[in-house]
Amino acid sequence: MIDLYQSQRAMRNMRRAALQRGVIAILDVGTSKIACLVLQFDGPEEPREDGLGSLAGQSQFRVIGAATTRSRGVRFGEIETIGETERAIRTAVQAAQKMAQTRVDHVIATFSGARPRSYGLAGEVELTDGQVTEHDIARALAACELPDFGAGREVLHAQPVNFAIDHRTGLNDPRGHVGNRLAVDMHLLTIDARVVQNLLYCINRCDLEIAGLASSAYVSGLSSLVEDEQELGAACIDLGGGSTGISIFYKKHMIFADSVRLGGDHVTSDISKGLQISMAMAERIKTIHGGVHATGMDDREMIEIGADSGDWEKDRRQISRTELIGIMRPRVEEILEEARAMLDAAGFDQLPSQQIVLTGGASQVPGLDMLATRILGQNVRFGRPLRVRGLPQAATGPAFSSAVGLCLFAANPQDEWWDFEIPAERYPVRSLRRAMKWFRDNW
Known about the structure:
By secondary structure, the chain is α+β, with helices and mostly antiparallel strands. It is built from 13 helices and 18 strands. The strands form five sheets. Strands 3-2-1-6-11 form a five-stranded mixed β-sheet, with helices on both faces. A five-stranded mixed β-sheet has the order 14-13-12-17-18, with helices on both faces. The longest helix has 25 residues, at about 320-345. The radius of gyration is 23 Å and the shape is globular. The two termini are about 15 Å apart. Self-interacts. Interacts with FtsZ. Its main location: membrane.
């Protein structure tokens, strides 16, 4: 655990240093695209009253550079071909730097996939002075016994989501409160270590320093859910190209995250195989004519399929839109049903509000709202990322939810376990010295 604690604190310190210099880059490594945003920070804000990010500080920012490129070498949100992904990252970062007319040395990255798993931990300590200090919070966090989440998995997020003093619970920031016992509930998110190791290796080969990591499911929820939804309980389903991220928020904290290893690219692949056309042509047909809800008019709407086989008859085929919908709908239903099963397993139906927000590039399929309502429930809406200063119009769609959410994560971070000075003699019971070895190896 010492390795984890020190490496995450080092990244937080690096992020603070980059923010003081005024410029930092945001990197969203997805299966369909790689997006890079260059942020310019104007200075610190006053701390918020609810305690979110109060220790790390908050900053006002604006986007001064933005670029996207086609993702290569990434499958299921995980890097498979390092060389191709490195070139794609270089292309996106250089284009964003050119637009911003400045050089960036530090990036904060987000990624999907990596098989995230959530754990709920609890710790409790006696208050020595009768009033809660940061040292008491650190002792309470250190009292949480870590689960045995297995070899090859590492901790990505460790956020305190609720504090209780004696019989008073629901506190976001207990500092200064008076009582006898302090209890904390912490949400721990673990991921496959090899996925992040490959990502760090790619970023380091691009002559960039990593100043932070975040789960795509987490940051998509930050940008797509409004404040009331985060407070009362809501789920964000980020329909990406290679995977679908699922996160649940309650009391303005993420309490669960998972992913489905299916996405929009699998729909494209089904069209390509069903119609025996190239992936590029299948993506074009899906974008222009796709849908998941057939009507009587779709039998008469014919779609011309062009190809380059040299056979005139085969190259000038036509299909009805109903046939296309018949190919797309089963895969979309499968993705939504997998997401529904994960929400049920997480106890989502126990939350006061059961709002579900669909976002991501694959959520723009026509007719998805009716299909999602039938499978997921009545409280379903489409989400777009919050507006941030300087963001180009082309980057305001659902496909950029994770990129915009990562901007909010960089500027307004929530307190995490490594933001507190944990006493050396009070490290958690279960040793994680092996746990973040890849972090140490990549510095």
